Every structure is written in C-alpha cells, then in structure tokens.
Amino acid sequence: MKRLYVCRHGESKLNALGRYAGQIDTPLTSLGRQQARLAGQQARTLKLDHIVASPLIRAVETAQIIAHEVGYPANRITTDVLFLERGLGELEGKSQKNNPDDPGLYPGIEPETVLDNRAANALDYLRGLEADTVLLVSHGTFLMALSRVLSDTLSEELPNAFIVEFDLKETPYAPDYFLNRQPSEI
Questions:
Q1: Per the residue annotation, which of 11, 50, 61, 85 is the catalytic one?
Q2: How confident is the model at residue 104 (pLDDT cuts 50, 70, 90)?
Q3: How far apart are CA 76 and CA 89, in angstroms?
Q4: Which of 14, 22, 110, 122 makes an SS bond possible with 92, Cβ 3.0 to 4.6 Å?
Q5: What pTM does this model have?
Q6: How far is the C-alpha of 94 from the C-alpha of 114, rounded, in Å?
Q7: Are 20 and 139 contacting, i.e. CB atoms less than 8 angstroms apart?
C-alpha cells in the first residue's frame, strides 16, 4: 500500500443525540448519509483500489455510500474488528454533557495503550494489503490512535465523513492534507 486515506463515519444517531457511542452499533442519520455522499463525491479522483471499514453499521454504511459514489463494488469492502471504535465500557450510551475529567474511572474502557497497540496492528494489516490506494472508514477515537502510531499529528477527532490522506512512502509518516471541506461547509 502506498497511499492511505482515512475517513470517520458520517453522523450517527448517537452522535446526533450527544451520546457516547463507543462500540454500540448505531446507524447513520439522514445527515450522516448526506455527509457520506459528499465525501464519496469528493473521493472520485482518488482512484481507490480497496475500501476497508470497521464492522459497526455506521462505518459500513458510510463505506458503502462512498463506494457507490466512486464506482467501487460494495461487495468488495473488507471489514475487520481491528478498526472498531474504542470500547467505552460504562460510558457507552451516556450523555456527553457530563464529560468526565478522567474517563479511565469508568469500568470497561479500553486502555489507551491497548487501543494504540490495536491501531499498530491495524496499520500492519493495511500495509499488507495488495493495493496501492486504500480508504479506511472507521471512528474518531480509533483514527486518533492510528494517527499517534503514524505521526502523532491529529490532536482531536476528525469531523464526520472527513477524509485525510497519509502518504505511506514517506518516513516519518504524516498526514499530507485534508481532502474534504471544512465541517461548516455542510
């Protein structure tokens, strides 16, 4: 693999409600589907060889919509649990208004070191694909972990259906540019 594009899924129902989703399987909203279509339209020039996604429905649906927009066969999308969102334990489904100062105090949260190790394994998986240009559709916190593994450059979650390119021919790995529009343009 020479080029890796990553995309956070479109807005999900729990995103819209301001609740922590974690690994809860929550579908896209109509806005989330619209965001995915826009991302797909903007990705038409990327010449994608392979699309990979988290198996959670919000990521799969986003990947399917993007695939449709770029003419990639949806039945060729690969899913893997390596790309799941961070497990949030007892925080899953709870309101983000009560944002804890130390989320580690909540039982069942996937430790950051475990998440980063999973992201490193995911990067190895992606590098092993026989494709030049790959799009990964995943989740905000997981993509931040992947960024830490690559270059420690993303300081906050990507907006929904926002595509970032990583050029994996370079060392150290760093994001080249944001492909999509600013979130306020939706």
A1: 85
A2: low
A3: 32
A4: 22
A5: 0.88
A6: 22
A7: no
Look up 85 and say whether it is catalytic.
yes
Arch. (CATH architecture) of 3-185: 3-Layer(aba) Sandwich (3.40)
User: Which member of 9, 50, 92, 110 is catalytic?
Assistant: 9
Q: Which residue has the tokens 């999900």?
A: 12
Handedness of CA 150, 175, 71, 161 (dihedral sign): positive
Q: What is the side-by-side strand order in the sheet with 3-8?
A: 78-79, 50-53, 133-138, 3-8, 163-167, 175-178
What are the tens digits of pLDDT across the range 13-51? 999 999 999 999 999 999 999 999 999 999 999 999 999
Can 185 be counted among the known catalytic residues?
no
How far is it, in rounded angstroms, from Cα 122 to Cα 41? 26
Alpha helices in 108-177 (DSSP H): 112-127, 140-150
The total of other beta-carbon atoms located within 10 Å of residue 73's CB is 9
Q: Is 108 left (phi over 0), alpha (psi -120 to 50) or beta?
A: left
**Other CB atoms within 10 Å distance of the CB of residue 42:** 17
